[in-house]
Amino acid sequence: MSEYLTTSQGVRLPDTDHSLKAGRRGPTLMEDFHLREKITHFDHERIPERVVHARGAAAHGVFVSYGTDLTRARFLAEEGHETEVFVRFSTVLGSRGSADTVRDTRGFAVKFYTDEGNMDLVGNNIPVFFIQDGIKFPDIIHAGKPHQDREIPQAQSAHDTFWDFVSLHTEATHHVFWNMSDRGIPRSYRTMEGFGVHTFRLRDAEGNTHLVKFHWKPVSGVHSLVWEEAQIAAGVDPDFHRRDLADSIDAGAFPEWELGVQVLPDDGTETFAGIDLLDPTKLVPEELAPVVKLGRLTLNRNPTNYFAETEQVAFHTGNLVPGIEVTNDPLMQARLFSYLDTQLTRLGGPNFTQLPINRPHCPVNDMFREGMHQSEIHEGVTPYKPNGLDDDRPLVDEDDGYTQTPRLVEGEVGRGNPVSFDDHFTQAALFYRSLTPVEQAHVAEAFTFELGKCLEQTIKERELAVLAHVDPALASIVAEGLGLAVPGGIPAVGDVEPSPALSQVVTVPGPI
Ligand code: HEM
Which ligand 1 atom minimizes the distance to the CA of 89? Predict the structure, then answer.
């Protein structure tokens, strides 16, 4: 770097405070290349914020494996193996400048820079999702984000549309219950659980497979704010979570999580204890499948530059390493398309994998060439395969490279869901009943507060009917708070018979 101030072309500058003018009082001259360059660059400093999860904070760290036979992925398989990571936490709906402590789902995205390539686990702090099929993602986000007329987050119209959507679209009910519980207002990023949400497939070196659900367990436990704290913090310190993360790392109190998996048989049914493992609105209770610990994550270094690292990092559910595979969950399938697609716009073309924060830490030798913002100077003949002239890019054996486990796919082309996706209430009830009375009271208060912001009475009544399907007593409390009657004739949970195993279970992952 030059000792002196220069233009971007390296020309040294004696003055950067006064533009070039014709006379002291004259007009500014086009000839002033420094003025034009300075203003032009400034004009283009911003890139589009993420279409969701725009507000985030991140940190570097290390993942140390405990070792496992479940997968051939080396960063998990080899005991003591250390892998550098970058982790970005986020809210979903707010813009880049929104407050941290709002009631929302939190993103928990981890990039492992493994020696077999980058592996991204793009999860949330809630183990289930609002929708079963990715084709609904634009709808739920349109219903929840600020509106096109006034762009006011939390305006009354936004409450109406969110509650309109989830009351009509009852597969969202389980996720909504987690949002209305204390999980929707975490104390800090350091005290959140994380979940891969979908079912993944792990494959070992011999080709044996298991289905798994990923979990991050915070070493300092799960802690939440209460609603009044969250509101005060949002006003007094909108950067509450971001500051807490950076301060704790600066102070040497490094945030830590253990990574674990629930291990489920890959027996061809893609179900476990009556639970459809391809349905992302369902979890598998830990009583039925305990979490097996795979390693420890420690965040020990703050980013140096927010834009270069936290803003430009690009997570993608399709960034997988040998031994870790996705399943046919229709939400996951749509995500596999969405992340790379959105990043082409957000990060200005196809070469964002060359940015320092996205570049793998292992050698790369792809055949991709040119494009916007190409920063490599490739030599020789443009690559192609098969190539009898210049074969400096051999392919590895199947055992060493990324392959998908062979599996039979057959069925009639159509848009319907499996019948097992129709149960929208059993697990919401399971979650609600697992809470302590104080936690249940918080859920009732949250529903009352949020629905109280709706203008349309029909929407409130429809959501009360949904609540009555989950827990009639809760529906009555909320109805009373809203000054409404519980709609009549609503059967309690049990419309769809829960599996015998599920009806025995009354708790959900992790303590609150
Ligand atoms: C961003 C999680 C569903 C599209 C994110 C981020 C997380 C996340 C954590 C933030 C990444 C970051 O920090 O940069 C999840 C989870 C989902 C889910 C856990 C469901 C289980 C979906 C679906 C779609 C989608 C169904 C679309 C079909 C996006 C997009 C971004 C994003 C476009 C912005 C990415 C970027 O600009 O870098 N998601 N998401 N997500 N998600 Fe999802």
Answer: 13
Report d(CA 334, CA 408) in Å as an integer.
20
Q: Catalytic: which of 81, 118, 124, 159?
A: 124
- 3-state SS, residue 336: helix
Query: Over the stretch 325-349, which tens digit does the pLDDT of each residue have?
Result: 999 999 999 999 999 999 999 999 9
Verify whether residue 53 is a known catalytic residue: yes
Is residue 324 a contact partner of residue 73, using CB atoms and an 8 Å limit?
Answer: yes
348 sits in the region (left: phi over 0; alpha: psi -120 to 50; else beta) called left
pLDDT tens digits along 24-57: 999 999 999 999 999 999 999 999 999 999 999 9
Selection from 23, 44, 22 nearest residue 31 by Cα:
22
**296 in Cβ contact with 256 (< 8 Å):** yes
Q: What count of residues does the chain have?
A: 512
pTM of the model: 0.94
ipTM over 0.90: yes
| DSSP state, residue 80 | T
| Beta carbons of 396 and 352 less than 8 angstroms apart | no
Query: What's the token pair of residue 215?
Result: 């979990």
The Å distance, Cα 255 to ligand 1 centre, comes to 23
DSSP per-residue codes, 454-469:
-S-HHHHHHHHHHHHH
Q: Is the dihedral of CA 9, 11, 17, 23 positive or negative?
A: negative
C-alpha distances in Å from residue 129, one per residue of 3, 171, 222: 53, 9, 20
Of the residues 52, 92, 336, which should be mutated to test ligand 1's pocket, given the most ligand atoms within 8 Å of the CB? Answer: 52
Q: Is 203 in the pocket of ligand 1 (CB under 6 A)?
A: no
What is the residue with the minimal CA distance to atom 24 of ligand 1? 335
Sequence-distant (≥ 6) Cβ neighbours of residue 306 within 8 angstroms: none
From the alpha carbon of 197, which atom of ligand 1 is closest? Answer: 21
Task: Please tell me the distance between residue 225's alpha carbon and the centre of ligand 1 in angstroms.
Answer: 25
Q: Is 124 a catalytic residue?
A: yes
Helix (H, G, I), strand (E, B) or coil at 122: strand
